[in-house]
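Continuing from yesterday's entry. The apo prediction looked reasonable, so today I'm repeating it with adenosine-5'-diphosphate included to see how the binding region is handled. Same sequence as before; SMILES copied from the compound registry.
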Amino acid sequence: MQIETKTSVDHISDGNGERVTVLRFSGDISSGSHDALLGTYQTVNKSQPVLLDFSKVEYINSSGIALVIQMLMEANKNGQKIAAFGLTPHFQKVFTMVGITKYASLYADEAAAKASV
Amino acid sequence: MQIETKTSVDHISDGNGERVTVLRFSGDISSGSHDALLGTYQTVNKSQPVLLDFSKVEYINSSGIALVIQMLMEANKNGQKIAAFGLTPHFQKVFTMVGITKYASLYADEAAAKASV
Amino acid sequence: MVKLNGKPVELRVPSRMGYEKVAMGTAASVAKLMGFPDERIEDLKTAIAEACINAIEHGNHLNENLCVGVTLSAHDDSLEVKVLDDGAGISKLPPRPDIDRKMHGEEDARGMGMFLIQALVDEAEWVKDSKGHGSYVRLVIRLDKETD
Amino acid sequence: MVKLNGKPVELRVPSRMGYEKVAMGTAASVAKLMGFPDERIEDLKTAIAEACINAIEHGNHLNENLCVGVTLSAHDDSLEVKVLDDGAGISKLPPRPDIDRKMHGEEDARGMGMFLIQALVDEAEWVKDSKGHGSYVRLVIRLDKETD
Ligand SMILES: Nc1ncnc2c1ncn2[C@@H]1O[C@H](COP(=O)(O)OP(=O)(O)O)[C@@H](O)[C@H]1O
Ligand SMILES: Nc1ncnc2c1ncn2[C@@H]1O[C@H](COP(=O)(O)OP(=O)(O)O)[C@@H](O)[C@H]1O
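Holo prediction written out below.
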């Protein structure tokens, strides 16, 4: 019944030629997204910054946000930088309400997110 | 309960410097749109072609289509050319299903519609 | 695609013009969950809007104390919709609209709703309650089928 | 803006994850008819989704034979929503989520739904049926009010 989350993993270079991992999500971010979020996060190189691309996500609920928080917990433990981009203004507000912005910055687009890490 | 139809009347020139009237609709085209469609049509110069701009219309139902047909009847009597543009592919299909395309051509955009009259 | 057989979704809206758009929104959400392509969802929305407008206007005569019911039943490869009113229903299908006759004032400009419903969905059937009050139209739209 | 006091819109969906999106679609259509601005409709959609998810999961324990009910009552300057389930309801509001405690594993990463509902709408109230079965959350979102 829930629409599947798809995650694709991209490797890009930031302005200084440093490698950055981009996790591009599409579909829904909900309770069914455990593997798409945390499973995929397990596979990324922990010594590089990670960008989360939400621009193709249609629906996010609080269970999905909890999975994002768990990902940030892991990254925090690893001392890894995470930034997010592509959230609608509404979900930027929701992420801010729950306090996520204390642990990950939100950017309007990929260029701004890339420049930040 | 029904959302109002708004009509604005524009006067433009076609490629040959001929005057063309453009009726730009927004809101809903439904049974409540009598004045916005037929009332406005009464005020236009009958010796110039008319373009109907549907690009800002959110919703069209069969009662609204009946009003468009009544407008085409009037134009037909006056020997006036009418073309429409800005319909979504779905409503292009619906207008074609009811046969409107026999009396008014549908174009993707204003430039194509203007070139046709 | 996700299988979601089970209890239908049920909606009731007041018999007031404009509320057909609530039925469109509900139906579009169910169809999207089922994995219908966008163009098929547009077909469904227009068909349901026309069915609701008829239920509001001809079935319930715009009496706001009466509701129009909509049930949406998801099957493996199709969505079945019923739009219910408290009226007497129809005895025979109206003639197919004729644009030439309309343009020459020989038939009412209106009278396209039922034709559009039939043209846009895979099955459409108008049913009168056997006890004489209440009628519904039953629509089926299939996942694998495109209109053209 | 159009006044549309009268009978409420009623929706029933099966207690299955994902069906909260049908409630979102229905509620968004009603709010749009009432003239709510888009950003307020987004607030309403998220609040209703969270209320339905709680009704599906905590109220009806994912039992697909039970339905979640949603009623949408349009008033002059507000929309009142009830989301009903067959469960026992809640006895007290959960503590406000604390992102620092979550990040340090001191509280569950989940537990943000009711907080978001309260943050996004103008009024939110959780009510238990006096006879002990059934509960609902009642939300009010006003036309003139922006959240920030
Ligand atoms: N639910 C209904 N109950 C009773 N009569 C109906 C119903 N739906 C349609 N009809 C009848 O069928 C006719 C044709 O309907 P339709 O093709 O939708 O066009 P329109 O509503 O514009 O007349 C209506 O005028 C009405 O007499
Ligand atoms: N409709 C309901 N029926 C019963 N219990 C509920 C209901 N809604 C919420 N609760 C209780 O309140 C708690 C907090 O809910 P919420 O803030 O939405 O977070 P979450 O659902 O992620 O736990 C739930 O874990 C549940 O115990």
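Comparison notes:
- The pocket of adenosine-5'-diphosphate (ligand 2) is lined by residues A 62; D 50, 54-55, 58-59, 85, 87, 89-90, 94, 110-115, 135 (CB under 6 Å).
- Residues 32 and 40 of chain C are 10 Å apart (CA to CA).
Will overlay with the apo model tomorrow.
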